């Protein structure tokens, strides 16, 4: 089957806006989001639908009109913030996914790629593979796991569920990258703060890791876009699967800072604060399944490369006089 017409939900967000930029020259791409695209993301509004996925009637009309061959479902309330109540995540992430799947069934659309997360796994210091125990700690993780189950239970769908680890970096031609309000991830915050000569906060330097700081798995946004396109090819043959998508190796917080100092050629001021409750020491994934099944490699995901691109993106925002706000609760 030829897959030409795509619908991206959550298209105004970080991954959605980058993915649209990456795919739009080769596919007919339709976009759907609660909110309009950011101004710096110059998109053709003709292909954009402002819609809350919880609104079944409106969603039905859109799917009836465009009849996509494939839905790439990225829409979610996606910050891990335990101050946001569980029911808010469930009502948004789970109900939205249920509505989408039911509407796809009504319109005979049977292919979906779903962006899930590392947050569905139980704590583990080993490289996590897809068969590891699932036990989300955060309400965000719980809602994403329930959304996964909704998709898998629906026997009219072929799916690829992609469990993303820490996505970072930008696309350069044209320039497009992460913009959350506030930013909560370590890399955009550290890069922006170090350019602006502000101190960076690192939570905990007494973990049982090589240098005492948390270890995470970073994956470049370009590799995410490539993984999604390769998953689309996998779906052509009406198969379903779940894949981890990460860099496949761990990078400590201290190592992020060291690399940043090397690239910027200056010292960066860091405050080492107390550990935070709920932060895992190590979160790294095994990507063998994605390598074997969809022939994907995280070619752009070396931390040096990710940071270099993130610096370019931050400088682009500064030039456009777009201020980046950040939360003290960086992840
Ligand atoms: N960025 C990461 O590091 C990362 C890591 C793991 C998983 N993910 C997953 O990838 C997806 C995209 O992440 P992102 O960083 O681009 O997030 P984002 O917050 O930048 O974008 C999400 C978009 O979804 C939209 N949305 C939310 N609820 C909606 C609804 N009910 N109806 C329509 N639109 C709705 C929001 O308006 C937003 O534009 C999310 O599902 C997230 O869980 C992201």
Task: Describe this structure in a few short sentences.
By secondary structure, this protein is of the alpha/beta class.
Report what the structure shows.
With 331 residues, the chain is an alpha/beta fold. It folds into 2 domains: 5-168 and 217-245, Rossmann fold, CATH 3.40.50.720; 178-216 and 248-284 and 300-319, UDP-galactose 4-epimerase, domain 1 (Alpha-Beta Complex). The chain has helices spanning 14-23, 56-66, 86-106, 139-153, 186-195, 221-235, 253-264, 288-294, 303-319, and strands spanning 5-9, 28-33, 48-50, 70-73, 111-117, 158-164, 166-168, 171-172, 175-176, 200-203, 215-216, 218-220, 241-245, 251-252, 270-273, 282-283. The strands form 5 sheets. The chain has a 7-stranded parallel sheet, with helices on both faces. Strands 14-11-16 form a 3-stranded mixed sheet. Strands 7-12 form a two-stranded parallel ribbon. Helix 2 (56-66) runs parallel beside helix 3. 44% of the residues are buried. The structure holds nicotinamide-adenine-dinucleotide (NAD). Nicotinamide-adenine-dinucleotide binds at residues 9-10, 12-16, 33-35, 52-54, 74-78, 92, 96, 115, 117, 144, 164, 166-167, 180.
Shape: globular
Helices and strands, in order, run as EHEEHEHEHEEEEHEEEHEEHEEHH
Q: Can you count the beta strands?
A: 16
Q: Give, in spatial order, the strands making up the sheet with the most strands.
A: 3-2-1-4-5-6-13
CATH class descriptor name of the largest domain: Alpha Beta
- Strand fraction equals 15-25%
> CATH homologous superfamily name of the largest domain?
NAD(P)-binding Rossmann-like Domain
CATH overall fold name of the largest domain:
Rossmann fold
Bound molecules: nicotinamide-adenine-dinucleotide
Radius of gyration: 19 Å
Q: What is the mean pLDDT?
A: 93
Q: From the helix content, strand content and strand pairing, which structural class follows? A: alpha/beta
């Amino acid at each position: 089957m030829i897959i030409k017409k795509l619908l991206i939900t959550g298209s105004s967000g970080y991954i959605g806006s980058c993915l649209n930029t990456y795919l739009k020259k080769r596919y007919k791409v339709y976009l759907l989001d609660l909110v309009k695209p950011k101004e710096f993301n110059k998109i053709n509004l003709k292909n954009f639908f402002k819609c809350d996925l919880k609104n079944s009637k409106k969603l039905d009309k859109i799917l009836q009109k465009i009849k996509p061959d494939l839905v790439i479902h990225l829409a979610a309330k996606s910050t891990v913030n335990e101050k946001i109540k569980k029911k808010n995540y469930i009502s948004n992430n789970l109900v939205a996914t249920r509505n989408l799947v039911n509407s796809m069934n009504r319109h005979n659309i049977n292919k979906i790629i779903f962006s899930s997360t590392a947050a569905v796994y139980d704590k583990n210091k080993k490289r996590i593979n897809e068969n590891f125990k699932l036990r989300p700690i955060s309400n965000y993780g719980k809602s994403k796991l329930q959304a996964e189950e909704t998709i898998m239970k629906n026997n009219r769908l072929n799916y690829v569920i992609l469990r993303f680890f820490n996505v970072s970096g930008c696309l350069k031609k044209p320039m497009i990258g992460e913009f959350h309000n506030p930013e909560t991830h370590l890399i955009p915050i550290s890069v922006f703060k170090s350019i602006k000569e502000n101190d960076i906060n690192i939570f905990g330097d007494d973990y049982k890791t090589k240098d005492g700081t948390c270890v995470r798995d970073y994956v470049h946004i370009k590799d995410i876009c490539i993984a999604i396109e390769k998953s689309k090819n996998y779906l052509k043959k009406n198969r379903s699967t779940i894949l981890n998508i990460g860099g496949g190796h761990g990078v400590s917080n201290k190592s992020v800072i060291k690399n940043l100092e090397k690239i910027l050629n200056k010292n960066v001021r860091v405050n080492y604060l107390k550990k935070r409750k709920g932060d895992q020491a190590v979160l790294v994934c095994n990507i063998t399944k994605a390598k074997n099944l969809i022939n994907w490699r995280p070619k752009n995901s070396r931390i040096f490369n990710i940071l270099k691109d993130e610096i370019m993106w931050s400088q682009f925002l500064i030039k456009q006089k777009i201020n980046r706000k950040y939360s003290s609760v960086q992840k």
